[in-house]
Design a protein that fits this description.
With 830 residues, the chain is mainly alpha-helical. Helices cover 77% and strands 0% of the residues.
Length: 830
C-alpha cells in the first residue's frame, strides 16, 4: 500500500512537471481526520503566491485607505505597467492538475473499495460457513445433554423406587417384628383369666412403665377391635366363637392390668405432687394421657386440690362473705366480701395454672375441669348460703329487709360472679363456656326475677304508705282536737301530696331498672322487664296522687257541708243571727284553707307527673325501642294511669269554683246594702268609690286566687280562670237583680263593674273581659234619661235582652212608663 502511494505521488509529480515547475502534492491522507478545505487550498497556492501574502500582510498593517488608494492607482496604472497577478497561469495549471489528481484519487479509492468489498464478501462467506458448522455442533451437544439428563432422571426414579421399596420393606419388617412381639405379649395375657403373674418383665419394670402402657393400650385396642369384628362378621362359626372367647380373656386381663398400672401411676403422681416434683408429675401425666386421654389423671388432680376437700376453706368462704353467724349481712359488706374471696380464688387458680402448664400435656383441658369445679362446687356452695329465694306468697318482712334485700344480694352476687368469670377466662379455662356456666348458677333466681321485682316495689309502696299514715296519725294525736273546721284544715295539710315521696318512688324504680339491665342480656327481654317495672311506678304514682287529690277534695266537701249548715234564714233573733254569722265566717275560713290546700295538691301533682315524664324520657324510652310497639304502649299506659288523677283534679277544681262563688255570694249578701245603688238625692256629691261589698269580694278573690295563679299553668290555668270568670259574671248579674237603681246608684254600679273588670283582666281570658265590658255598657241604662235609652244600644244589639232586665231595675221604671216605651222601641223583645 505504501509503495502504491509513492507511485501515485511520483506519477502526480511527473504529470505536474510537464505542466508547471511547481511541485503538486495531494494524498489520501490529506482528506482524513479533521479535513479543512481552506487548509488544503492554502497549502496548494502558498508556494505560488508569496508576493500576494506579503501585500496582504502590509495591507492589514497599513489600514484600509492605503489599500484602496493602491488598488485605485494600480488600476489606473494597469494600462502601462505589468499585470497585477502574473501567477494566474500557474494557478490555472495548478488547479487543472489538482483536478486531475483528485479524479485519479477518486478512481483509486473506488478501486480499493471494490477490492475491499470483494474481500469482505469472501470473508463473510467463510464466517457463515463456520457459524453453520458451530450450530450443528451445538445442536449435537444439546442432544447429548438431553439424553444424559433423561438417563440421569431415569436412574433417579429407579433409585427412588428402590428406596421406597426398601423403606416399605423396612416398615413392613418393623411392623412384622412389632406384631410378632405384640402377639407374644397378647398370648401372655390370653393365658388364663386373672393370671398376671406370668407376664414379661416389661410389664412389671417400673423403669419401663411408659413402654408397657403403650403396648398394653395397643393390645387392648387390637383385641377389642377383633372381638367386635368377629361378633359382627361370623358369630355363628365355632372357630370364630372360640377365638372371640380367647380374646375376651385377653381383654379382661389387659383391662385389669391397665387399671392396676393406672392406679400405680396415680399413686406415683400423688407422691410426686406432695413433694412438688414437677418432672415426675409430668412424666406420670404423659403416660396417663394414654388411658382415656388422661381424663382420670386430670380429674384426680383437680379433685385433690385443697380448696375442694378442705371443709375449713368452705367455712372461711362463708365467714368472709356473710360475716358472723346471726348478723344481718348488708349488700355493701357482701360486695366487699365477694371481691376479696373471688380475688383469692383467682390467685389460687393462677398458681394452679402454672403447675398445670408444667405438668400436663393438655393443660387447657385440665384448666377447663378446674374452673368448672371452682364454679360448680366452691362458688355454688357459697351462693346457696347467700341467696335464699323467698316465697312470693309470704314475703319477708320489711324489718328484715324485705324482698329488696334479696334482690340487692342477687344483683351484687351476680355482678361479682361475672367479674370472677372474666378473671378466670383471662387466666385460662380452655374451651369451657365460663360465661354460660356462670349464667346457669343464677338461672333459678333469674327465672322469677320480674315477679320478685314487681312484688318488691309493691311491698315498698305499702310500707311507705303505712309509714306516712302513722306519721299523720302521730301529728294528729299531738295537735289534739281544735274544732271541726280547723281540724279538717290541719288534716288536709298533714296529708298533702309530697314530691319527695314521688321522687322516692322514682328512685326505687331506677334501682329496679338497673337490675333489669344487669340480668337481661337480650334487648327484647330487657324491654319486657323494663316495661313491667315502669308500669309499677305508674300505678304507684297514680294511686298516690289520686288519693292525695281525693283527700284534698274531702276537705272541700267538708267545708261545703259547713257552709250549708250555717245558711242564714229569716225571722231570726239578733243573737241567733250573730252566732250563725260567726259560724259562717268559720266555715268560709275552712273553705279558703281547703281551696289553698287543693291548689297545693294540684301543683304537687303536676310536679310529680313531670318528674315521671322526665324519668321516662331520660331512662326508660331508649330501653323500649328495640321492641316494636313497646314505647307507644308505655306512653299509652302512662296516659291511662294519670287519667284517674286528672279526673280527681277536674272535680276538685269544680269544687274550688263552687267554694269561691259560695263565699262571693255570702259576702255580697252580707255586705251589699240597698242604699248602695239608691242613694238619697240630698244634694251631696255622689260617692265614686266602689261599694263595700265590691271591695270585700275583690279582696277575697285576690287573696284566695293567689294560690291558683301559682299552682295552675298552661291550659289548665286558662280553663279554670275562664270558668271562674263566667261564674262570677253570672253571679253578679243575679245579685244585682235584687236591687233598684237611681242615676247616682247607676254611677256607683258602674264603678263596681269597673273594679270587677280590672280584677278579672288578670285572668287573661278575653271572653270574660268582653262580658264585663258589656256589663259596663249596660250599667248606663241607670244613668241616661228615659228618652235616650233607644239610642243606647244601637252599636250592641246583642245585649238588648239583658239590658231590658237592667232597665226594669230603674227606680223610675213604672213612673216613666218605660215598659210601653221599650215595647214600641224593641218589639221583638216584648
Amino acid at each position: 500500500m505504501k509503495e502504491s502511494r509513492n507511485e501515485m505521488k511520483n506519477d502526480r509529480t511527473s504529470k505536474s512537471s510537464s505542466v508547471s515547475s511547481l511541485p503538486l502534492i495531494l494524498d489520501v491522507d490529506d482528506f482524513k481526520g479533521d479535513f479543512s478545505f481552506d487548509a488544503l487550498f492554502g497549502n496548494l497556492v502558498n508556494e505560488l503566491l508569496p508576493s500576494f501574502q506579503d501585500e496582504e500582510a502590509d495591507s492589514s498593517e497599513g489600514g484600509g485607505h492605503g489599500g484602496n488608494d493602491g488598488l485605485s492607482n494600480g488600476h489606473l496604472r494597469g494600462a502601462a505597467a505589468a499585470p497585477l497577478f502574473p501567477e494566474v497561469d500557474k494557478l490555472l495549471a495548478l488547479f487543472n492538475d489538482s483536478y486531475k489528481e483528485l479524479v485519479d484519487l477518486r478512481k483509486q479509492i473506488d478501486g480499493r473499495l471494490y477490492n475491499l468489498k470483494k474481500e469482505v464478501s469472501v470473508q463473510d462467506s467463510k464466517h457463515r460457513k463456520t457459524l453453520a458448522e458451530l450450530e450443528k455442533g451445538v445442536d449435537g451437544l444439546f442432544g447429548s445433554f438431553a439424553r444424559l439428563d433423561s438417563r440421569i432422571s431415569s436412574v433417579g426414579q429407579t433409585a427412588a423406587k428402590i428406596g421406597d421399596h426398601l423403606q416399605s420393606a423396612d416398615a413392613q419388617r418393623e411392623t412384622a417384628s412389632q406384631t410378632i412381639e405384640l402377639i407374644k405379649y397378647l398370648m401372655e395375657f390370653n393365658s388364663s383369666p386373672g393370671d398376671l403373674m406370668e407376664l414379661s418383665p416389661l410389664f412389671s419394670d417400673d423403669g419401663r412403665v411408659a413402654e408397657a402402657a403403650t403396648i398394653a393400650q395397643k393390645l387392648r385396642s387390637f383385641a377389642e377391635e377383633d372381638i367386635g369384628r368377629q361378633g359382627i362378621g361370623a358369630a355363628s362359626v365355632m372357630g370364630n366363637a372360640a377365638a372371640s372367647r380367647g380374646l375376651e380373656v385377653a381383654v379382661a386381663n389387659l383391662q385389669d392390668y391397665c387399671n392396676e398400672l393406672e392406679n400405680r401411676l396415680l399413686a406415683r403422681f400423688d407422691a410426686a405432687s406432695q413433694k412438688r416434683e414437677l418432672s415426675t408429675m409430668a412424666e406420670c401425666a404423659k403416660i396417663l394421657s394414654q388411658f382415656n386421654r388422661g381424663t382420670s389423671a386430670m380429674q384426680h388432680y383437680v379433685a385433690t386440690r385443697p380448696m375442694f376437700i378442705d371443709v375449713e376453706v368452705m367455712n372461711a368462704d362463708t365467714r368472709s362473705v356473710l360475716g358472723d353467724q346471726g348478723a344481718q349481712a348488708s349488700p355493701s359488706n357482701v360486695a366487699r366480701g365477694l371481691s376479696s374471696l373471688y380475688k383469692e380464688i383467682t390467685d389460687t387458680v393462677r398458681k394452679e395454672a402454672a403447675t398445670i402448664m408444667a405438668v400436663f400435656p393438655s393443660p387447657n383441658e385440665v384448666m377447663a375441669i378446674l374452673v368448672q369445679r371452682v364454679l360448680e362446687q366452691r362458688v355454688t356452695a357459697l351462693l346457696d348460703k347467700l341467696l335464699v329465694k323467698p316465697s312470693l306468697v309470704n314475703l319477708p318482712p320489711m324489718e328484715e329487709g324485705g324482698l329488696l334485700l334479696y334482690l340487692r344480694m342477687v344483683a351484687v352476687a351476680y355482678e361479682k360472679t361475672q367479674e370472677l368469670a372474666r378473671d378466670l377466662r383471662a387466666v385460662g379455662c380452655g374451651d369451657l363456656d365460663v360465661e354460660g356456666l356462670t349464667e346457669s348458677l343464677f338461672s333459678a333466681h333469674k327465672d322469677e326475677y320480674p315477679e320478685h321485682e314487681q312484688a318488691s316495689l309493691r311491698q315498698l309502696y305499702q310500707a311507705k304508705m303505712e309509714e306516712l299514715r302513722a306519721e299523720n296519725q302521730q301529728i294528729s294525736d299531738s295537735t289534739g282536737t281544735i274544732g271541726r273546721s280547723k281540724g279538717a284544715s290541719v288534716a288536709s295539710s298533714h296529708q298533702q301530696i309530697s314530691v319527695t315521696v314521688v321522687t322516692e318512688f322514682v328512685r326505687w324504680n331506677e334501682e329496679a331498672i338497673s337490675r333489669c339491665t344487669l340480668f337481661s342480656s337480650q334487648p327484647a327481654t330487657l324491654a319486657t322487664n323494663v316495661k313491667a317495672v315502669f308500669t309499677c311506678l305508674l300505678d304507684q304514682v297514680s294511686q298516690y296522687i289520686t288519693e292525695g287529690l281525693e283527700r284534698a277534695r274531702d276537705s272541700l266537701t267538708e267545708a261545703a257541708n259547713l257552709r250549708e249548715k250555717f245558711v242564714l234564714g229569716t225571722n231570726l233573733s239578733r243573737r241567733v243571727a250573730a252566732a250563725a254569722a260567726s259560724a259562717a265566717e268559720a266555715a268560709a275560713a275552712a273553705g279558703e284553707s281547703s281551696f289553698r290546700s287543693f291548689m297545693v295538691a294540684v301543683q304537687r301533682c303536676g310536679s310529680s307527673v313531670a318528674i315521671v315524664q322526665q324519668y321516662f324520657a331520660n331512662s326508660i324510652s331508649r330501653l323500649l325501642l328495640p321492641v316494636d310497639g313497646a314505647h307507644a304502649a308505655s306512653c299509652e299506659e302512662m296516659a291511662t294511669a294519670m287519667s284517674s288523677a286528672e279526673t280527681a283534679a277536674y272535680k276538685g277544681l269544680q269544687q274550688c269554683i263552687e267554694t269561691v262563688m259560695a263565699e262571693v255570694e255570702r259576702l255580697l249578701s252580707a255586705e251589699q246594702k240597698a242604699v248602695d245603688y239608691r242613694s238619697p238625692d240630698d244634694g251631696i256629691a255622689p260617692d265614686h268609690r266602689p261599694t263595700n261589698a265590691c271591695t270585700r269580694v275583690v279582696a277575697y278573690l285576690s287573696r284566695v286566687l293567689e294560690s291558683a295563679f301559682t299552682a295552675l299553668e298552661g291550659l289548665n290555668k286558662q280553663a279554670f280562670l275562664t270558668e271562674l270568670g263566667n261564674r262570677l259574671h253570672k253571679g253578679l248579674l243575679n245579685h244585682w237583680q235584687k236591687f233598684t237603681f237611681n242615676p247616682s246608684g247607676g254611677l256607683r254600679l258602674k264603678r263596681d263593674i269597673t273594679e270587677y273588670g280590672e280584677f278579672v283582666r288578670s285572668f287573661n281570658a278575653p271572653s270574660v273581659d268582653e262580658k264585663f265590658e258589656l256589663l259596663g255598657i249596660m250599667a248606663n241604662v241607670f244613668i241616661v234619661a228615659p228618652e235616650s235609652l233607644s239610642t243606647l244600644f244601637e252599636g250592641t244589639p246583642s245585649i238588648r235582652k239583658d239590658a231590658q232586665r237592667f232597665i226594669q231595675l230603674r227606680e223610675d221604671y213604672k213612673s216613666a212608663k218605660l215598659a210601653a216605651r221599650l215595647s214600641s222601641l224593641w218589639p221583638s223583645l216584648s
